[in-house]
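Review box. Two proteins, two foldings.
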Amino acid sequence: MNGNKKFIDTNLIIYYLELNEDFYPQIKDIFKKAEEGRIKLITSSLSYMEALIPVVKADDIILKAKYNYLFKGFEGLQVLDIDMEVAYIGAVIKAKYGIKTPDALQVGCAIRAGCDEFLTADTRLGIIKDINVTVIRPLGEVI
């Protein structure tokens, strides 16, 4: 599966699980490929936290169960912890590009995991040159 490790950013996970009409059509195939074992999706425990904040706040039991399944039971997704090495790489990325700390940690996690691609909807991360960043745009957006 070498060459098929994709880091998936929090925003795309949220858009997928919550069936966001502007992004779901572009990202559903990514999760399908992961489900079929054709690619391996990687994310961090930070994504779990970020995705759950509004769910916990709204006390949405059904959506919480969906997130728990995706992060804990979906075999196509590997969730990595933020360790000291990831924190160091994140510090280097933050110093180099001036991005927000959570974004730098996500990129650090992707680099540490050996991902060949970082998938996100955050256009600000397109400046990163240390990993191949693919920015997924909303449906119908004209560039």
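Next protein.
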Amino acid sequence: MARVQVFGVVGLVLAAAVTAGCSGATSGSGSSSSSGAASARGSGSGPAPTESNPPGDIPDNQAFVAYRPTGSAFTGFTVKVPEGWARTSQGSTTTFTDKLNRVQISAAATSSAPTVGSVTNQVVPQLRGQVPKFASPKVSTVPRKAGTAVLLTYQGDSTTDPVTGKVVRDAFERYAFYRQGHEVDLTLSGPVNADNVDPWRIVSDSFTWK
């Protein structure tokens, strides 16, 4: 009778070991499958998605300072730009940036004043080839304190942020001012749906010929 009990105990131990082994194999297989699926999802790469409604409002208490180009560039104008924004210059173009917003100022000598027709037929095709996902161009004339300007509004994608990898959908306002053989283009841009109507009006209305 004692021998029967020993065999019974051994049998139970072996059965338990087999059951645990099967359970461990099943669990390990499931974990590997789940990990592989997650890895497959994570390894996929593609173009960065465009953010449609990121932050970008310029603060209501933003101060503005007068800017006038110097050196060999055309210096016959001034315009107010947001104080404290980073400034870069290349040739006849000066750019002020802060986070997602930008003010770009370009000057050129030209024999004729810009018109709705010239901007539509010349500038729009040029920008279409330069601005990613260029869309919704509208050309009109608007009154400003310096005189009538040709306004081109459009949308486009920003360059990919090198840190976050994100792309922002931007709205652009391009004002073309002209006087006595000189054209100054003032381009204001920031995220679509950002409430920058007032700051952009301050900048565009501050443009003055000297």
